[in-house]
Structure formats: C-alpha cells, structure tokens
Amino acid sequence: MKESLRSELPKLAMDDIPTPAEDAVTITGLVKEHGRISGYQLSDNRIISRSEGVALARSGGIRGVGIAHNKNTEYLKSIPDESEGNNLSSLPTVNRAE
Residue 76 CA to chain centroid, in angstroms? Predict the structure, then answer.
C-alpha cells in the first residue's frame, strides 16, 4: 500500500496528465538558460520553448509528461514510472542552435 501511494504522490502534484496521441514525440534534451529550463528538444529533433512544450503536451503531442505549475508559470514534469533514464532531470542539456 505504501509503495503504490509513493508512486502516486508525484502525479497528484500535476495539474494535468494529457493522453498522448499515437504519434506523440518524447523529450530527449533540455534547453537551459541560467540553469533554468527554457525549452525542450524533441525526438523529432525540434527545439521548442517551455510554453510551446506545455501547449504541445496539453494537445497530446508529447508522451510521458504531465503539466504542473509554479506560481504563474506552467512547465512539464515526467510522469513517474520504473525508469530513471526517462526522467526530465536525467536528460542532457542541449543548445538552442542544435
């Protein structure tokens, strides 16, 4: 019981967990400015801003993420699962020019 509650708690912190479309992409890298995430690199090699990522995820275009907020800023969070490798915090930082 405790283990299932522990895996569900992070999901409760999310505002929305959209259902991904069949052709949804994944996030493969993070764009950072001054140590903060400002965008995402996608599995189709596009680089999008944080707000574009939220909008795309909300419409089912990104797999494996939920939407959360801090004050007035929305951002993406990994949906908890058994793999650490697909957590956003485990992804490499990429340059916007890549």
Answer: 4
- Per-residue pLDDT, averaged over 62-85, amounts to 87
Q: Who's near 20: CB < 8 A, 6+ residues apart?
A: 60, 61, 62, 63, 64
Q: How far is CA 27 from CA 2, 35, 48, 52, 78, in A?
A: 30, 18, 10, 13, 10
In this prediction, residue 51 carries a pLDDT of 96
Question: DSSP letters along 67-87, please?
Answer: EEEETTEEEEEEPP-S-STTS
Task: Choose between 84 and 76: higher pLDDT.
Answer: 76
Contact criterion met (CB below 8 Å) for 50 and 88: no
Q: Identify which of 2, 30, 13, 24 has the alpha carbon closest to the alpha carbon of residue 79.
A: 13
DSSP bridge pairs for 48: 40
